[in-house]
From TrEMBL:
Key words of the record: Kinase, Transferase
Protein species of origin: Trinickia soli
Gene3D superfamilies to which the protein is assigned, alphabetical: 3.40.1190.20
Stretches for region Disordered: 1-30
Domain spans labelled Carbohydrate kinase PfkB: 41-331
Protein known as: D-glycero-beta-D-manno-heptose-7-phosphate kinase
InterPro entries the UniProt entry points to: Carboh/pur_kinase_PfkB_CS, PfkB_dom, RfaE_dom_I, Ribokinase-like
Superkingdom field: Bacteria
Amino acid sequence: MSNSKPHPMRAPDATPEPSSRAATSLAGAARVSRERLGEARVLIVGDVMLDRYWFGDVNRISPEAPVPVVHVQRQEDRLGGAANVARNVAALGARAGLLCVVGHDEPGERIVELLKDSGVATHLERDPDLPTTIKLRVLSRQQQLLRVDFEKTPAHEALLAGLVRFDALLASHDVVLLSDYAKGGLTHVTQMIAKARAAGKPVLVDPKGDDWERYRGATLITPNRAELREVVGQWKSEEDLRERVDALRASLDIEALLLTRSEEGMTLFTAEGSVLTAPAVAREVFDVSGAGDTVIATLAVMLAAKLPLVTAVTLANRAAGIVVGKLGTATVDYDELFGADVR
């Protein structure tokens, strides 16, 4: 494990049962003030994109092909990828700084506009040859009919400029959050992790792909089931899962792994060998897109506010249960997470 841990995450003890731990965490969470979260500073780095939604009615099938004809009546743009993570951080009242690369085009300008409206401090590198990533979704009667992606990898010069700016931003943030969507924005992720840990900053990673060697030395990594399975293979039991995760963590010098498990909630594996399972708390699942963004954003905010890891996980689980009841990439604000009576 890394020797540079001036700000380690506090992991749960091995003795209490998960249910009692969760109750303790919830009691502590109720005392988190707006002021405390307002002092938390999170630097988000990664792939940003524009989530564009076209809403319309379907009344007929095309005579050209057996596909529905959508009469588009409304368009909505939302921040996606790392930009949505930053928006989630800001929605909780924390200070969100976003480092990313966007193009000199209409979608890039729209992202800048939406970030400003969301209260996110932007640190953007502009690549004139980069078409800003767009995920276009066509919906009718709340059902997604089609998604069209537009994307390209940023230029090496823009990425190097971003790495230089990363060095300058480290000192003014408490936690580093790396949001990887495999669009090329985190080409230098290994160097970023090493620099952040050397500076005593916890590093949270939302991973992508099967090459996790690039995340070596991270403090916490937050895969979903499919992402973890791609790296460690299919597990046969909970004990088998624990053994595979422990071996993975040890080999990559990662302190903790939070596995998000959809309807099964989430499970935290720590360097101390502790395991905490938080059951899903969603009342109604409407749309799971962006839920992982909300989870890691909530974790980052709570850890930046110096809350224990168990409390951070409990709150992240609660936030996930709220956000899946909303359409598309959404956020959870302070009042939703803690209740309007909490100050």
